[in-house]
Amino acid sequence: MGKFIRKVLSMGLIFFIIFTCLAVIRLGSLNVDAADVKTTVYICGDSTVQTYSARYAPQAGWGQFIGDYFTSDVLFVNKAIAGRSSKSFIADGRLDEIINVIKPNDYLFVQFGHNDATISNPERYAEAGTTYKECLRQFINRAREKGAIPILITPVARLNYVNGTFKNDFPAYCTAMKEVANEKNVPCIDLMSKSLSYYASIGYDRVYPLYLVSSNGTDYTHFTEAGAKQIARIVSEGVKELGIGISKYLVGAAVTPTSTPTQKPTYTPTAIPTSTPTEKPEATATKNPTNTPIVSEDLNGDNIVNMADVILIAIYFNQMVNDGNRRYDVNGDGVINMGDVIKIAISFNKSI
Predict the structure, then answer these.
(1) How does pLDDT run across 4-22, given as a tens digit for each residue?
(2) Contacts 24+ apart (CB under 8 A), 308-312
(3) Selection from 309, 317, 320 nearest residue 343 by Cα
(4) Number of helical (H) and strand (E) elements in the chain, helices listed first
(5) SS3 166
(6) What distance, in Å, lies between the first and last C-alpha atoms of the chain?
(7) CA separation for the pair 336, 326 (Å, rounded)
(8) Which residues make beta-bridge pairs with 250?
(9) CA 151 – CA 67 distance, rounded (Å)
């Protein structure tokens, strides 16, 4: 009987904590709003943009380095993922996930085109002049409905070098995106033109190590870390040129590096296949802050799970998970919410 009573009391304590947490979260949300939450940039894109974990090294996407060119006043949430086109990104519900949490004056960066051109894959394929344009309009309209600011980014160049010239593999998609940008009065960064121009300025031997072909001999589409960093720099320069709200938070974006890694290719191709190579499986960044506590529920590292940890959850409540707030997603479901509070409640006031 005593064991039953103790169990009832324990459950009562957990429910009391949950209700208390709800009040704290509401208070925390108000405090965060009053303090003017950081501007967040949500990035939509494919494998050339996505963030990769260390096991994929040296592969990287520019989305994992773009934050290096901005002050901490801007938060980047990279939702780009391998194998997606503008069409499949929407169909998979990935745009919905962003729209559910995006705030007024946040930004939505949109780069697609590589996978949209895969005519052999009906789930991805989006014809440039029709479906692709309509999908881009959906990104724009839905962002604007939430008071957010859409920014279109043309597909980045592949390493297609023919007769001494770097080629655009997706001209129809670049044109279509710029037409939609003009139609909807949306800022557009012409990443294709900017990347091709940069490549021409440094030459093939210095562009070669920026792509995975330099390590695996086959991949002319995806970037090494060095390449992803260069593309992130070019994107940040595009942001500066647009003169938008977050342009004031740039740091050193306009400085072109004086040196680029040089790796002599074993041969100079005369033609590169126009089809995009098969993409690697989805990868998710696994980096954690160096001060992540041993016990996941002890968020503030004071060796006890208590209300101080709940308050930290409140600050980030209803945010999607990124490298900056990953530790607060206690239950690992990708969103900071009541599931994390409940997990803390179960361990409440237990010393580590």
Answers:
(1) 445 544 555 455 555 555 5
(2) 309/344, 310/17, 310/20, 310/21, 310/24, 310/25, 310/341, 310/344, 310/345, 311/24, 311/28
(3) 309
(4) 11, 9
(5) strand
(6) 29
(7) 9
(8) 70
(9) 16
What pLDDT is recorded for position 166? 98
For 22, 68, 153, 195, 247, the CA distances from 187, given in Å and listed in that order, are 40, 22, 9, 18, 13
Spatial CB neighbours of 53, under 8 Å, sequence gap ≥ 6: 283, 284, 285, 286, 287
Q: Could you give the CA distance from residue 101 to residue 76 in angstroms, rounded to a whole number? A: 14
Whether 61 has a pLDDT exceeding 70, the answer reads yes
Say how many C-beta atoms besides its own lie within 10 A of residue 286's C-beta. 12
19, 219, 322, 343 from 298: Cα distances, Å:
20, 43, 19, 11
pLDDT, tens digit, 9 for 90 and up, residues 119-156: 999 999 999 999 999 999 999 999 999 999 999 999 99
* CA pair distance 253, 235, nearest whole angstrom: 9
Please state, in angstroms and rounded to a whole number, the distance separating the CA atoms of residues 224 and 154. 20
Structure tokens at 260: 């680029």
Q: Which amino acid is at 125?
A: Y
Tokens found for residue 7:
């169990």
User: CA neighbours within 13 Å on the CB side: how many for 258?
Assistant: 0
Q: pLDDT tens-digit profile of 196-255? A: 999 999 999 999 999 999 999 999 999 999 999 999 999 999 999 999 999 999 996 444
Task: Categorize the per-residue pLDDT at 314 as very low, low, confident or very high, splitting at 50, 70 and 90.
Answer: confident
Classify the C-alpha dihedral 157-160-166-167 as positive or negative: negative
> With 50 as the cut, is the pLDDT of residue 275 above it?
no
